[in-house]
């Protein structure tokens, strides 16, 4: 049994999609279980196509699961809501709304008074470093700044858990590093519980307390890697031996999984 | 500011004005020196003189009023119905399947040729013209509303859903504003069709209107008067177009740069068969 203090508990989660070509169905998750402590930063990594993004959507309640349970603060997750903040891979900001109006979207959907929302938004605009850009439209912003808006939009609803789906994947390498460092700073200030999906191993290790490594499909948890590097971390730790050893370790698990799934595909191809 | 700076600041407008002035001058020259036959061609000066004469006799006001009423009433009803049916078709798959063959048939049929039948059925007055204008105007609005609503970026809908948006909130906060650029395109495309509908149905039988003025004048070889009618129609179409463009700019902040990733306002008439064919999202 999980300790009652856990923020988020996933128990024996299963999910399959109906296959488009044949009659059968495709198993995506096969009994995934883990728990997350309050204010913990968890990353999910795994071979491409293992379903990390689907998993995150299931945690949010955007996609239903077949079996198993998801508990947030002891309550079953059945649908999306303001107790979870979702940060999308592409910012998916409403193009006809200003930065300010995009950020207050979550509050607006809950029916919060507009003036009150805007006052609250100022804090988050400052937190993500967007002061002065309140009246800009998304197309006037760089990719990195759009992701800052994306982040502020998720933080303002004051969620119990922040679900981040490869938020820096479309940014250039430099901007990505800056955003990683800033994310840690914001995380330190807000003390949110974060589930962070990424395909970049160094990003996962740099940010996280623990890295959950998924197997190839049907995905199970291969290993949960604890990152003992002390905080606060600066970008220079990425060159430390401890960091590189961890990265090697995670990489070898994923490589192993990729090779296994390639072998399986070849077998299926022969059949 | 130097003259060069003034020119640069208004370069586009200046070029447009010069183009129009030169065009009018060329027209006048061809009329005076090349053709010089008032039955075939009349220059701008004679059109202007005829315009003033018609205006002072109060004839013009009557014709403009008749055509304007037919146009505006038929157009407005067409816009409201086209928008409404487009929304319902986008929201309900069943309605879409039931209506789409009829919509396609009516849209592609040369409805204008049915004008004599409409006039026989509904009389020489306003109602028959309104009906033709309505049919001409309704489909571009309908197609564009439907296409706009069904091609709104799914990622935007998912984002609103992730923050707990209800179906109703998704409709009003994403689908509807997302479809607006295409709805406005539909409104603009309908203007031309509606005007042609009003005029041509007047050709087939009427007691007043600019179409009536043009046919009556041509038959009596008063070419200048016919030209007055044509010029007024062109100006009216242009003005409506500009009003809609202005409304579009006010309603859709930042559309001069196309919204990234969602249906842009570039879908034109020939691309509007989306109701019957699988629709390909086009974005510039």
Number of domains of chain A: 2
How are strands sequenced across the largest beta sheet of chain A?
6-7-8-3-9-10
- What's the count of strands of chain A? 10
Number of H- or I-type helical stretches of chain A: 8
Counting structural domains of chain B, the number is: 1
- pLDDT < 50 stretches of chain B: 256-284
Low-confidence parts of chain A:
none
What proportion strand of chain A? 15-25%
| Overall pLDDT metric of chain A | 90
Portion in helices of chain B: over 70%
State the distance separating the first and last CA atoms of chain B.
38 Å
Order of helices and strands of chain A: EEEHEEEHHHHEHEHEEH
- The share of residues in helices of chain A is 25-40%
CATH superfamily of the largest domain in chain A: P-loop containing nucleotide triphosphate hydrolases
Summing up helix and strand content along with how strands pair, one would put the structural category of chain B as mainly alpha
Task: Output the CATH topology of chain B.
Answer: MetI-like fold
Q: Regarding quaternary structure, how should these chains be classified?
A: heterodimer
> Pairing-aware structural class of the strands and helices of chain A?
alpha/beta
So what's the overall shape of chain B? flat
Q: Which CATH architecture of chain B is right?
A: Orthogonal Bundle
Total strand count of chain B, please? Answer: 0
